[in-house]
Design goal:
The chain has about 160 residues and is mainly α. The protein contains seven helices and no strands. The chain has one domain. Helix 1 packs antiparallel against helix 2, helix 1 packs antiparallel against helix 7 and helix 2 runs parallel beside helix 7. The longest helix has about 35 residues.
């Protein structure tokens, strides 16, 4: 599971780099067209929002992989090792349950008729394309959390 998580994380990092690069290029181009050529590009705002949403879900998944979320650990820092390990396992099981629930409902949402026929205003692409990142992000996060859980259970480390 750790190998799969590492492979997904490598892909996510590359994808995030590409998405951030294109977002920067589009925004810079938009500013140049708006202020120097006096011809604003109407589609850049919408594409930038889609890219930012993709970056957010991919980054959130990577954050779970590397355990970089903010947390209050005063309780965990002051309990014995075994209790800390059990609390970490319970926390990871709750996160896995939440991610599976959100993955189920996001897939149901993406495949609904309301999304299937919806199109973006400026670029006229089907909205299921930008919305696909929601289940993708939850699926990747599920793999990362499951890999972290297996590490805690196998190695006995609850860091």
């Amino acid at each position: 599971m750790n190998t799969l998580s590492a492979g997904i994380a490598k892909f996510e990092k590359g994808l995030a780099i590409v998405l951030i690069f294109f977002m920067a290029v589009f925004m810079t181009t938009s500013v140049l067209f708006r202020y120097f050529l006096n011809a604003p590009l109407s589609w850049v705002g919408e594409i930038s929002i889609f890219l930012l949403i993709w970056i957010t879900f991919i980054g959130g998944s990577l954050g779970l992989k590397y355990k970089s979320q903010a947390s209050v650990t005063i309780l965990l820092d002051n309990v014995p090792f075994l209790v800390r390990k059990v609390l970490h396992i319970i926390g990871h099981l709750i996160m896995i349950s939440f991610l599976l629930l959100m993955l189920y409902y996001s897939m149901k949402w993406i495949t609904s008729s309301g999304v299937s026929y919806q199109r973006a205003n400026s670029v006229n692409i089907p909205m299921w394309i930008p919305y696909t990142v929601v289940p993708l992000g939850f699926a990747c996060a599920f793999v990362h959390i499951t890999a972290n859980l297996t590490t805690i259970v196998k190695e006995g480390e609850a860091k």
